[in-house]
Amino acid sequence: MNKIAIFGAGGLGREVAMLIEQINSKKLTWDLIGFFDDGLATGDEVFGYKVIGNADDLKKHKSALSVVFAIGEPTIKQRIISVIHNPNLNYPVLIHPGAVLGKDVVIGEGTIIMAGNIITVNVKIGKHVLLSSACTVGHDVTLGACTAVMPGANISGNVEIGQCVYLGVGAKTIQQVKIGTNAIVGAGAVVINSIPPDCTAVGVPAKVIKKNNQ
User: Fold this and answer.
1) N or C: which terminus of the chain has fewer CB atoms within 10 Å of its end residue's CB?
2) 94-201 has which fold?
3) pLDDT of 44-95, one tens digit each?
């Protein structure tokens, strides 16, 4: 089995540990050695696994190791990934055995696909994307790197989603809209018009309520 560690020991980290266990229940693939986390002490125990270090320790790790980043906030995840330069690390794709993937689905390294996802055809998923449980992704969709799609979100066909987008729980899009880089779409929102970058949109239909970082 290949050794794997999770960066981030919060709630999402525990869910990713569960995902790894579910993958192993179908086919023994991963030896989960523990968590890296900047907010916990080395030796702490989370979900039955030890915290084995922080980001600095991960940068200096001296042997081959698969790592998955369990960080729900896209810009924080992108920032952490950007400073961890270690040729000993690799970033596997984790897909729940029950997820449904159609033809011509391209998935970037480090992506996490939880239980209940249905991803249809001709979909391009960037690096380190999170697809939480029970999401649907229609045909010809593009998801940018480090985007996070929360549980129960539905993305219709021919939708283009930029990098570091946060799509909230139960959010939906109609077909052929674009959601710009660093945008946040609130829980339950319905996107019927394109959303510009660097803003937050909520409601039915989704409307921009603020520019982010202001």
Assistant:
1) C
2) UDP N-Acetylglucosamine Acyltransferase; domain 1 (2.160.10)
3) 999 999 999 999 999 999 999 999 999 999 999 999 999 999 999 999 999 9
Catalytic residue among 61, 85, 128, 139: 139
Cα 146-185-120 angle, rounded to 5 deg: 65
**Cα(117)–Cα(30) distance, integer angstroms:** 21
Token code pair at residue 79: 């920032």
| Residue 72 counted as an annotated binding residue | yes
Q: What angle do CA 77, 98, 160 make, to 5 degrees?
A: 45
**Amino acid present at 57:** D
Q: Using CA atoms, how far apart are residues 166 and 162, in angstroms rounded to an integer? A: 10
Measured CA to CA in angstroms, residue 87 lies from 10, 58, 63, 67, 84 at distances of 26, 11, 9, 12, 10
Place of tokens 């959303």: 195
pLDDT class of 208 with cuts at 50, 70, 90: very high
Domain spanning 2-90: CATH 3.40.50.20 = yes
| 139 a catalytic residue | yes
